[in-house]
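Hi Y.,

Following your request, here is the sequence exactly as I used it, all 312 residues.
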Amino acid sequence: MDMVNLVTGKLREWKNAEAKPATVLISGTGGKAFCAGGDIVSLYHAHNGKEGFDPVQKKEFFEREYIMDYQLTQMHPTQIALWNGIVMGGGVGVSCHSPIRVATDNTMYAMPETAIGFFTDVGGSYFLSRVKNNISLGLYLGLTGHRLKAKDLVQWGVATHFVPSDKLDTLRADLVANVQSSSSQAEIEQIVSKHSDLNAGSEPIADLEHINHFFKDGKTIHEVIASLESSETDFAKGTLKKLKYMSPLALGVVYEQICRGKTMSLAEVFEMEYNISQGFMHHTEFFEGVRALLVDKDRSPNWKYKKVSEVP
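Below is the corresponding structure, written out as tokens. Let me know if you'd prefer a different format.
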């Protein structure tokens, strides 16, 4: 929450300032750059009445986080996200909507929320439904929590550029020296491109044909699972192995939210996602997932529904 307050205050300051920055470079610190986790553990403790954790946090945290995420998308300075580490959870929300998103050889991106009985929030309904203009890719990422590393992010359209980590300091220096208040986004992109591997992402996405076949919108999560179960392909078997660890309820919610997000504005998406978040705050699934994976770490969540076919 401290970061949310800090960023929100800075955005307010820039909005009211006569001299605004031409660009904003957002990066994380340490090896877990753009990775949340501690916040959801705090929500777990607040839910269970642990001393020092206020239950009102379950409402205020998501409200303030989503407002901050949306405000970042509306600010006038061009935002550049430097992903030089792990990109997950709330860290995705403060950076994935940037028009310039830089991956490095250290980057690992995932939206693994279904594994903790939650949904792909922070605007996931919007950006996952538009990954490379192919909703099948977003559905696959959101449902399975599939991890993308380094150049994969450009290949999948999640990052816009790939810059080797040993060139980041040079990139930063170039931006500081050459971005002017009058610089357009295209001019800023040209500077980033000078330091980028322009061949990154040129290889075809592995298993794209299978992803497009099984992960379509216009179905239900029950139909997606049934289709995978009826297939003898190695892809289907491997995917089902991943999905069996996920919350069946969360899988249903994530499929539906991404399909709905395809036709919604970003503002509409954040409003929908706030309502979904509060539904999860009044349900056992999220807190059981956090307990099993992040608190007790027994990795044996007792989901409300044992199979997707049991989800209403």
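The radius of gyration is 20 Å.

Thanks again,
Q.
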